[in-house]
Design brief:
It contains 8 helices and 17 strands. With about 325 residues, it is of the alpha/beta class. The protein has 2 domains: about 10-140 and about 260-330, FAD/NAD(P)-binding domain; about 155-255, FAD/NAD(P)-binding domain, CATH 3.50.50. Strand 1, helix 1 and strand 2 (about 40-45) form a beta-alpha-beta unit. It binds flavin-adenine dinucleotide (FAD). Keywords: Flavoprotein, Oxidoreductase.
């Protein structure tokens, strides 16, 4: 990456556009802007496509490759559905081919200045820019259980792979795709899995090829599933739950709380973006242009949906890039 990853110092010259977030949508925005002759820097607090780096090992995307493509670059894969590793390679190649200026492992803290003369303040310095595109996704702030003991070291909101859990009691909390896939992988790798579900059933939104697999493993008793069950406390003896039949303590060598994620609202506030008072706490933006209440500051990708994190994903969020880039190019006069 060295040929296009400028050091913070080298990239500190003013730019036209700062993209916050080097996810698939942030990269799509950056290359669309750059192709219109504007100077752009992409700032990410982590690695390139940091969210995907954090996804489970060998995770299979639901989307076929052409629906994940950005910038017109073909996404060749040997698989009908790409793996996480394919996507990591693909987005790296795109960023490299476009010679995007990347400032990685640099966290954006806030936005200062006025329209046309903004300063993005990071934990490494300041970056003068005329426009800002916020493409910060949703994967950094988990929906916490909110119970005593949830800071326990054997509880994680992020699942990677099952191999450390052979012969272990693992409690998986959640009823959607991530929880379903983790429970299936874990049981097949030799863990004793208890699935804790707050509602009445495994979500209907679980993909049609995963849901019956999980339901059959539950029916045959390989996965124990507790419905209408809430976590009360992570205690020394295990996970204390309240089931319809009363309280129970589940043995747990490890706990995966796969209960979803939410945008970083404190960051949005620090960037001066207001949020609606609707159920999704939608970041205020024009639905046509994606410009926020702060002139020259745009939202793109998953963050646009607020708490409705499945409203925008790579397939549809990548199209925000051309709209925003055209708007920025046009607003230059
Ligand atoms: C398990 C799983 C499977 C999925 N499968 C699919 C699929 O098959 N098809 C599909 O279309 N979508 C899928 N999605 C959804 C998709 O991955 C996301 O919608 C997508 O990553 C959103 O892209 P984005 O660029 O908007 O945000 P992200 O990819 O989340 O990128 C946001 C970036 O912003 C950075 N950032 C956050 N805060 C700061 C800060 N303060 N300063 C600097 N940088 C910051 C983060 O580090 C991150 O790199 C899946 C999601 C998950 C969790």
């Amino acid at each position: 990456m060295s040929e296009h990853t400028n050091s913070a110092a080298a990239a500190a010259a003013p730019v036209d556009v700062v993209v916050i977030g080097a996810g698939p949508v942030g990269l799509a925005c950056a290359l669309e802007v750059q192709r219109r002759g504007l100077r752009v820097a992409v700032v990410d607090k982590g690695a390139l496509v940091n969210s995907l780096v954090g996804y489970p090992t060998n995770m299979e995307f639901f989307s076929t490759p052409e629906l994940l493509e950005i910038g017109g670059y073909p996404f060749p894969t040997a698989h009908y559905k790409p793996l996480r590793e394919d996507a990591l390679d693909y987005y790296r190649r795109v960023a490299q081919s476009e010679k995007l200026t990347l400032r990685l492992y640099e966290r954006v803290l806030r936005l200062e200045g006025e329209p046309g003369a903004y300063e993005v303040v990071t934990d490494k310095g300041r970056l003068a820019t005329r426009f800002v595109i916020i493409a910060t996704g949703f994967f950094d702030v988990p929906n916490r259980l909110g119970v005593p003991g949830e800071e326990a070291a054997h509880l994680s909101y992020y699942y990677k792979e099952p191999y450390a859990h052979v012969g272990q009691h693992v409690v998986v909390v959640g009823a959607k795709n991530s929880a379903a896939k983790a429970a299936l992988q874990l049981v097949r790798a030799g863990a004793q899995v208890t699935l804790v579900v707050r509602g009445a059933a495994v979500s209907e939104s679980v993909k049609y090829w995963i849901r019956p697999d999980l339901l059959n493993r539950i029916a045959e008793g390989r996965i124990r599933a507790l419905f209408h069950t809430t976590i009360q406390r992570i205690g020394p003896a295990g996970v204390e739950v309240l089931t319809p039949d009363g309280p129970e303590t589940l043995p747990a060598d490890f706990i995966y709380a796969l209960t979803g994620y939410r945008p970083d609202y404190s960051l949005l506030a620090a960037l001066g973006v207001a949020c609606q008072e609707d159920a999704a706490r939608t970041p205020t933006h024009d639905a046509e242009t994606f410009e926020t209440n702060r002139p020259g500051v745009y939202v793109a990708g998953t963050v646009c949906g607020g708490l409705n994190t499945s409203r925008w994903f790579i397939e549809n969020g990548r199209h925000h890039a051309a709209v925003i880039a055209a708007r920025i190019a046009a607003s230059q006069g």
